[in-house]
Design brief:
This protein has 219 residues and is of the alpha+beta class. It has 2 domains: 5-32 and 46-143, no CATH class; 158-218, LysM domain (Membrane-bound Lytic Murein Transglycosylase D, Chain A, Roll). Helices cover 17% and strands 30% of the residues. It has helices at residues 70-79, 85-89, 172-180, 186-192, 212-218, and strands at 5-8, 13-15, 23-26, 29-32, 46-50, 54-62, 99-102, 113-126, 132-143, 163-165, 206-208. It has a 7-stranded antiparallel beta sheet, covered by helices on one side. It has a two-stranded antiparallel sheet with strand order 4-5. A two-stranded antiparallel sheet has the order 10-11. Helix 3 (172-180) crosses helix 4 and helix 4 (186-192) crosses helix 5. The longest helix is centred in the middle third of the chain and has 10 residues, at 70-79. The radius of gyration is 22 Å and the shape is globular.
Length: 219
């Protein structure tokens, strides 16, 4: 049975020990009704916009018989609440880290991309030395709008490809997540650009961006 995971655009990920028993999805729209003292009937509603989709779920951690580190996993969740280093280093408005929930293939959240809005962890069992071995965490994710998939010219010519200049805080994982919504395609980026050490791509390096199919075939 495939394990559910949360995958972040910076390449970090959290694999669930236990798949969620349930999760809830909510989305709302704003409809306004202008008031008129002279109107004999209720006025027609006017559309005011759609609110972002939110997802809530409970994660269960149990290391009583295993060697996992649930404290580290919960610290990962708490760390994902912070703005990205890239948005801070570039002195832009702080931006949240984009996350994707993955669990098999066709599931309700397959296309959902969001940021972690809240985490509430509760430790419920400990070893004699105080080490937590069981915990639950309530998390809430809020939707991040996604742009249409980016495409390259169909000619396949090197000169016609899009490119990306690496900035401070960038990694092949983050570029793959931004371009394809899949950080695992970083290997395709590395192959196309002849990069031997993906951990040492200097800021200022210009990457050629292959199509998602090309990156997938090389990953």
């Amino acid at each position: 049975m495939p394990k559910a995971t949360l995958a972040a655009e910076d390449g970090s990920r959290l694999e669930f020990r236990f798949n969620p028993k349930e999760y809830s999805i909510s989305k709302s729209a704003t409809w306004n009704r202008p008031t008129s003292k002279s109107a004999k009937h209720a006025t027609a509603p006017e559309f005011g916009g759609v609110q972002p989709q939110t997802v809530q779920m409970e994660l269960f951690f149990d290391d009583w018989e295993g060697s996992g580190d649930l404290v580290k996993d919960i610290e990962t969740l708490l760390g994902w609440l912070k703005p990205t280093d890239k948005s801070i280093n570039q002195k832009k408005k702080p931006q949240p880290l984009a996350l994707q929930f993955r669990w098999g293939g066709q599931q309700p959240l397959a296309e959902f991309k969001g940021f972690l809005k809240s985490v509430s962890a509760k430790y419920t069992m400990f070893r004699s030395d105080g080490t937590p071995v069981r915990a639950t965490a309530q998390i809430s994710l809020e939707e991040i709008p996604t742009d249409p998939p980016k495409t390259n010219p169909t000619s396949g010519a090197i000169a016609g490809r899009r490119s990306h200049v690496m900035a401070a805080g960038d990694s092949l994982h983050s570029v793959a997540f931004r371009e394809y919504d899949d950080p695992a395609l970083w290997r395709g980026l590395a192959a196309v650009n002849g990069i031997d050490d993906p951990l040492r791509v200097a800021p200022g390096t210009r990457l050629l961006i292959p199509t998602a199919d090309e990156a997938g075939a090389l990953s």
